[in-house]
Amino acid sequence: MITNDYLQRVLADLQKNHPGEPEFLQAVEEIFESLQLVVPNHPEWEEAGLMERFVEPERIVIFRVPWVDDNGKVQVNRGYRVQFNSAIGPYKGGLRFHPSVNLSIIKFLGFEQILKNSLTTLPMGGGKGGSDFDPKGKSDGEVMRFCQSFMTELYRHIGQFTDTPAGDIGVGAREIGYMYGQYKKIVDRFEGGVLTGKGLTYGGSLARTQATGYGICYFSDEVLKYHGKSFEGQTVIVSGSGNVAQYCAEKCMSLGGKVVAMSDSKGYIYDPNGINLEVLFDIKQKRRERIKVYADEVPGSEYHEGCAGIWTVPCNIAMPCASQNEMDVEGAKALIANGAFAVFEGANMPLTPEAIAAVNEAGLLYTPGKASNAGGVATSGLEMSQNSIRMSWSFEEVDEKLHGIMKSIFNACLAASIECGKPGDMMIGANVAGFLKVADAMMKQGVV
Ligand code: NDP
Predict the structure, then answer these.
(1) Is the domain covering 59-191 a CATH 3.40.50.10860 domain?
(2) Do domains 59-191 and 209-372 have the same CATH topology?
(3) What is the pLDDT of residue 364?
(4) Is the Cβ atom of 209 under 6 angstroms away from ligand 1?
């Protein structure tokens, strides 16, 4: 509940002006709930219209993306880039290609990205983009033609000092490669830092592919340690089976956890012996098939239709790594009833507000995605550093830096939670610690 007058007013205006943007409004309300603990200490923020400016993107670009499919038919998709906040650095945030993409989803992701990027300690502002294009079932040629058309418009809005996109759902190394190639051709410069998640032969960073998933586990491990626990011997479920879920599962296993269930948008697999990642990686990365195939190939495993069913699998720790609002209150209740003690978010905003309330009420450990999944963008920042100094660090060097950053994010969140009188509350800690730096920069830069 938001009780602070100033925040209530800003939120009410936003709700009135953007009724068709539920995900964005959900993200703002969630963040305001934490920020009301610090807003009363800063009357100067209201005078400077700080919160009104904070919730309004600096710029939104929406554009047509025409391309020709393999049958010679013209297809048209819609492209988006929301450049939300550049107070502490050039806009940075991924591109999502998924049929569900709309302005509300891109705005919520861009808004969360401001705080996430601030938490990494690197100089990166917040942005996000994407398209309602669905790469699933498309040939490489179709994906290439779409990416080229997308970049033919986007290139004029980005640059290493302006806005530096990366991947997200539906945008992996293949898509980044096609977009980078088109950008380079148009601007006629090898500007490595403009996109991250690049291939290793043209400026990519070792460990970027693994970074988000590994980072989630490094962060969660700090939370577990703080509470006198560890991953060792824990039964874990990881939803999703994309980039984030795969490497979250890998690191979790290497820290001693046993991942018994994973999913995609159609259903989930259960393997009581622990997911065989070699098989899973082959299915997802090489063959680009659905997760269902796993159950056909691994004896003793099962496939169940319906992705939400994954929350009914008994576990100690749940790590939602697929998409926003994938766990509703029913899912949360099922986890609680089965005795889970922690929910560590990997995706962006995967729990509905009601699910978060249920998890908190039941006293489970809970970490928000904006803190725990910040390792992806942090390593994108490291990729840009390597591009700038024209050097490549080893996998171990990058992984070590990532580990250090995740520990420092945990410490920053913990310190902020203690200052707010809510020790260990990672949601409050992440929102407050991330915001204070951005607020300070915005105040010092005047009304812009
Ligand atoms: P991928 O496209 O690699 O994988 C997404 C996975 O989630 C797939 O298994 C997909 O299933 C599933 N999924 C997508 N939409 C839904 C849905 N509506 N309901 C259930 N399952 C769904 O994406 P990533 O792994 O990169 O991203 C996963 C999450 O992590 C997102 O929230 C993203 O914003 C966040 N994130 C990603 C970062 C990165 O570095 N990639 C960095 C920080 C956050 P299917 O194949 O059936 O569509």
Answers:
(1) yes
(2) yes
(3) 98
(4) no
Residue to substitute in 243, 377, 398, 406 for testing ligand 1 pocket (most ligand atoms within 8 angstroms of CB): 243
Enumerate the domain spans of the chain.
Answer: 5-54, 59-191, 209-372
Query: Atom 32 of ligand 1 has which residue's CA nearest to it?
Result: 347
The arithmetic mean of pLDDT across residues 417-434, rounded, is: 97
Nearest Cα neighbor of 406 from 221, 238, 236 is 221
Please check whether the domain covering 209-372 is classified as CATH 3.40.50.720: yes
What's the pTM?
A: 0.96
What does each C-alpha distance from 57 to 292, 349, 411 come to in angstroms?
40, 19, 29
Question: For atom 39 of ligand 1, which residue has the closest CA?
Answer: 168
Residue-wise pLDDT for 46-87, tens only, equals 999 999 999 999 999 999 999 999 999 999 999 999 999 999
